[in-house]
Amino acid sequence: MRIPENKIEEIRAAANIVDVISEYVQLRKRGKNFLGLCPFHNEKTPSFTVSEDKQIFHCFGCHAGGNVYKFLMDYEKISFIEAVQEIAERTGITIEADEDSSEKQSEQEILYDINTTAAKYFSDNLLIKKDGESAQNYFHNRKIKIQTMRTFGLGYAFPTRDALVNFLKERKIDFNKALSLGLIGSGSDGRLYDKFAGRIIFPIFSPNGRVVAFAGRVFNEKEGTAKYLNSPESSIYTKGRILYGLSHAKDEIRRSDRVILVEGYMDLISLYQGGIKNVVAVSGTALTDEQSTLLSRYTKNVVLLFDADTAGIKASMRSIEILLRRDMEIKIASLPKGEDPDSFINNFGKDKFEEIIKRSVNFIEYQSAYYESLGMFDDVSKTAEAIRDLVKPIALIKDELKRNLLIKSISKKFNLREKLLEAELEKAIQQEGKQITADERSRLRVQTNIEATTPSQISKKASPAVYNLEREIIKLLFEGDKGVIEFIAAHIPPEEFLISVHSKIAEIVYEACTKGDDVIAASLLEKINNDKIKSYVIELTFEKHQTSKKWEEIYPGAAYEVILSKVVRDTIKKFKTSLIEARIAENHRKLSSAETENERLELMRENVELERSKQKLKDELKIEEESL
Ligand SMILES: [Zn+2]
What we know:
alpha+beta
């Protein structure tokens, strides 16, 4: 079903976000905003903020944020359309079915439907069909109960060439879509075949429980076949963004404020069946930064439980770094030799498993024990190398106190002077600092993925001062004041922003304003269709204005609107001035390397011109201010 844009806006405007969220979260008024404990991550001091003026929410802890629709989607794990319908119901607005497009499902919805149909088919093969016996026996041998098979939607793909193809044909399912989902393949003879034939099936769920992909495992091992086959990435599945089991585990993760990270599907399923439910699996890939961000929405406490083989240890070490960057508290648990989580829970039960988790150690102890086992502390040069390696991840921790405690623990353990370790740490932090700014820059590049409006702009570099002023101006655009937007639009055309993401945002806001649309932040956000830019804007609008502390002091007693318009003028003036100053400075640089007298003369003339426009700008804004 498709709901027209203006209807979506009408419904949104009819509900007050504070009232809606209050039904789920206890909010207290703090200044202009409302504050509460975030429902999306575990916290003890409230960082979940709702703005009534802007009709949006934002969590400073886990960075969740958006308008009332986004809140319902995230909280109730429903789709956008469902969120709109829910608000419509609350506000008593009826949505009339849009006749010519109501039948049209979104592309993604169709893909979800196909996966759901396939999942049901695989599950029926395993649980109902007689031919599924061999697969069921495999699970029985691994001590998996029928109920657990149901919980995780486990299934079986018959070993025949085209059982699924025929099933999909009967249901008139679009083969091209099934091909793009990797359920079926097309042979060299053009005949379609079942990709997962002969494998047992693990559906992979999104955090809100929809089937996004499948993993198929061979169970009567044949030579030459890969043990696991995974669905390819599609518009509903990005490998590095999914954690297996999260949809089943998330409530328990929140409740226990801890997550256990394991390697495989079977590890997770056996633990879950054994009563350990706060578990997710990275399943075959190295933990990604996105997975780590996803987890941090539920808890900051992670216990790694990877196999004790070399591959497992290497994976743990890599995961540690990724998790440290997200400020997670990391412990590492170790199982006795020869056991994996799956075998351990089946052999020893829940209580013994919990003891293992209780005995988990911090990453320094884990890493040093590993180096010890490699004999690295028997040799002076290797010891130095090992200690440097131990210090490196500490540099990723943002909390200085925590860093110092860990340094102390290493110093004690190896009987080394703290000063020495601190020097190593300092070096590592500097290295990391460079890394972070590089990361940040690349993040910004992602945000500015939209083409810069003019080629010359790509070469223009924004100084930190200009960058900050641009951010201030964008913040002002989201104050919800039409007059402010019009004023800014009149003085700064979109292409004048040096950061192209700012140009794009300004363009969207200006356009909404010209069209006469509502310019409240909650409504402007709906017009931005890039999620990264959306969260960038949300973070920005919840940041304090850099000048805000001074606002009241500079204009004591003035009305908010008056202050706002003064701040707008100030900011624009500063921005324009710094653009001109940057050009003047650049000309000065060019002057020193100019080769001909003519070139020099030209640059000097240009600078006189620039100085003049700088002065003119000052006067111009002054007059406007006086006429206010
Ligand atoms: Zn949060």
